Every structure is written in C-alpha cells, then in structure tokens.
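Per reviewer request, we include the raw input and output of the structure prediction for the construct analysed in the revised manuscript.
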Amino acid sequence: MLGVLFLLSAATSYVITRVSIHVSLRRRVLDLPSARSSHSEPVPRLGGMGILCGLYLPVLGLWLVEHLGFAEHAIGSREVMVVLGCVAGMAATGLWDDLHTLRPATKLVMQLLWAALAVGFGMRVDSVSVPFTGVVMLGALSWIVTILWLPGFSNVYNFMDGINGLAAGTGMIYGGFFFLLARREGDTELMVLAILSAGSCLGFLVHNFPAARTFMGDIGSLSLGMLFALFVVRLAQRSPHASTFVALVLVCVVFLYDAAFTILRRIRRRENIFQAHRAHLYQRLAQTGLTHARITGLYLLLHGLVGVLALAYVAASDAIRVGILGLVVLILLVFTFGVSRAERRVTRSGAVRGVETPGPGG
C-alpha cells in the first residue's frame, strides 16, 4: 500500500507541476534573471503547487477511503490535521510572496503565527537527551524552542533552494529517513506523510533536474521546510526514546550547518546578514565552476551519510552516540575545508569566472 501511495504521489506531483508550468507561462508568473540568478531566461516559479498536490490529494483520497471502511492506513488524527493545516498556511504565505513579494517583516510575522498555532494545539519539543547527561526537560522553554524551530527551519530550507534539484532531492531523502524513523517508532500516520512527501518531491524533481523547467518557489520551499520541521516535533514528542530528537535533527543537519556556518561567517566579517548574498557553501561551490548536478549530488550524498548515522544514533549506547556526533562534525568540517580548497585552487589558477549566483527557487 505504501508503495502505491509513493507512486500515486509522484504521478500527481508530476502532472500538476507540468500544468503549473503552462499556467505560470500564461499568467507570466516567472522568475526573472538577475545578478544573483542561476538562470539566464525567465522560468516558471509555481512548481511547488505540484509538490503540495502530491501530498494533499492522496491524503484526501485516504480520508475518503477511510470513511468507506477500506482504509489500510488511517490518517485523520488531530495532530495530522494540525500538521497539514500549518503546512497549508505556510504554503499560502509562500504563494503570496511569489505573486506579490511580501515585506520580510510581514512574512516573518505570518510564519511565526503558523508556528504559534501548531504550539497552541500541543505540538512542542518537550525534552532533549544528551549522552551521559540524560533527559533534559525544557518546561516553558518548549514553547519558545518550538516557535523558533518551525519558521527557522522553514527559512533555512528556503535559503537552500538555490540550484537545480537541491531542495527537491533533499526532500526525497528527508522523506525516506523520516519514514524509517517513523516506522521504528510505530507512527503509521507520519509514515504515510513521509512517503507522500518523498513521492511528491520526486514528481517535481523530474521538471527541475538536471535542467530546470520550473522552480518550486517559496510556496514549495517554505511548505516543505515547515513539513519536515513538524515531522521532527511530532516524532520527538511521541517517541518513548529520549534520543530520537537528536537523531531527527541529525537528518536535517547538513542544511542547518550550511545556514549557521554562513551566518556566523558573515557576522565575523561584519557583514549585514539580512542583505542578499551568495555566501552559502553551495553557492561558493557554484562560483568555482562546479555544475549544479555535481553540487546537488554532493549534498544528497552528505544527506545520505548523515541520515544513516542518525538511524544508528537512536539504537546506540551513549559512548557510540558521542562517536557518531564526532563523526558528523568531522564530515561537515571536511566538507567545509573542501569548499575552501576549491576556491583557493580556482584563485591560484587565475581562472575565477563571473559565475552567476544561484537565486531562490533554482
């Protein structure tokens, strides 16, 4: 059944994304080239509609089948309604920004409202577990941590949607690992949502990689970011294993690291972190002349390596967990060193070219 849902989601996303391309061209909803863009011609930017339809239409079908008494995987709990409602709200925010360009402050307020809604309905990260320390209860801080985490990771995901295939390919891998973690915890509803998210990203990916016939836009990247952030909260809250939260964050750590490293690097250089830039690690790789396909492939490999370590982390002893965390840090540092080395090599060769910077939605 889950395999059927995956294929149904992928097919739905593929078809709706294709339709969105024609609609965007007709309505002139296009991502125009700029100094920060990775494309030289206008590209439709509402491909995220396909991703959302690939998620929501199968869920709607499951609800209908459930009411007829034939559901193998029932999916209708209050928590799932909250997840889907908040993701839809974030998608609406992204769509409005794609069509009319929201002011950053207005956009952030809307994102915080959706996060507060999720927390208000009881979705919170209540505790974390640190090796050799035990469980740390967050208490009232759980509200603050969750409200910051949900829009925070949504925006991280949006920032990382800058070259062909990166956001959608990441969504496929995230969906797969969240499916495996949900299966371990016996959370059948999240298993369904995870497999649908992976399928919908696959259907979109066909139109976005290696050449981009459409971009997912903020409607796609913000909603995917919110969806995966809510997966982390839901699984961490329901799991009887205190180590699950760290494992869930490890699944997302490559994107988190890229964003955090970039911000800290810009602060150290006394740069305005709110100004548009091209300092993300994937952007710096693009400026060395590496193709989008290779950069995306490298990031997907990193996601896969760290995701496997995340799965191992849940069942490991405290000593092994410390080793896993150390290995993840080492992988990220080696990756960062590799980016710097590639930049130095290009500089020394005198072959620095004016590679256009990836822009949002690439």
